[in-house]
Write a structure and sequence with these properties.
single chain; two-stranded antiparallel sheet; 2 strands; mainly alpha; 8 helices
């Protein structure tokens, strides 16, 4: 993995976080934050254009203060047809990754809000025969408290860990999905067990 690939990875992650954060700031009418994120977005777009340039041309472009459109136009005017096709394939891959990562991040923030509002307590419902209502309340409140702290679960090799949602990275997507599957499976088995025990089942 070369330096340019590492730079592209970092650019993709930061670009998505800025876009999602801007949406959050707009939703909550945080005008100063929106302005600051707008400035950061311009810088990231410029950096993305520099990443696309050959290494020898990046310094000159950075010095003259060119922004993304100028840099991209320069790349396109000096590349061969094969280079153009490769660039388009790479750009498509980046766009797809950006879309998938953005969707993941937005889903994580939505899930966090639902948990903060007591989602687990609603899903657990009333205690079954032999269950302690106090234990269910502690379980639901514990999940709500973790959500208020911004924590989400990750499952890897049978072990559960927790991470703040803003610290999630692309490499965490699989572990987050595994933790969500475990939670959904447990809730389904609990509900199915209640249905099996209920009269007339």
């Amino acid at each position: 993995m070369g330096p340019s690939h590492i730079a592209s990875e970092d650019f993709v992650k930061r670009a998505v976080w800025v876009e999602v954060s801007y949406g959050y700031a707009r939703e909550h009418n945080r005008r100063k934050l929106m302005w600051l994120l707008g400035e950061v977005k311009d810088d990231i777009e410029f950096e993305g254009a520099l990443v696309a340039l050959p290494p020898g041309e990046r310094l000159a472009s950075a010095r003259d203060g060119s922004r993304g459109k100028v840099a991209h136009n320069h790349v396109r005017s000096t590349e061969s047809e094969d280079d153009a096709r490769r660039r388009k394939r790479e750009e498509e891959k980046v766009r797809n990754r950006l879309a998938a990562w953005k969707q993941f991040v937005e889903a994580e923030f939505r899930g966090l809000r639902l948990r903060q509002e007591g989602q687990l307590g609603r899903l657990l419902g009333e205690p079954f025969a032999g269950e302690s209502s106090a234990a269910l309340e502690r379980l639901a409140e514990g999940d709500r408290r973790q959500a208020r702290a911004g924590l989400v679960a990750l499952m890897s090799n049978g072990h559960t860990t927790y991470k703040r949602v803003e610290q999630l990275r692309e490499g965490d997507m699989f572990s987050r999905a595994a933790a969500d599957r475990l939670r959904s499976t447990w809730l389904k088995e609990r509900r199915d067990g209640w249905l099996a025990r209920s009269p007339g089942a």
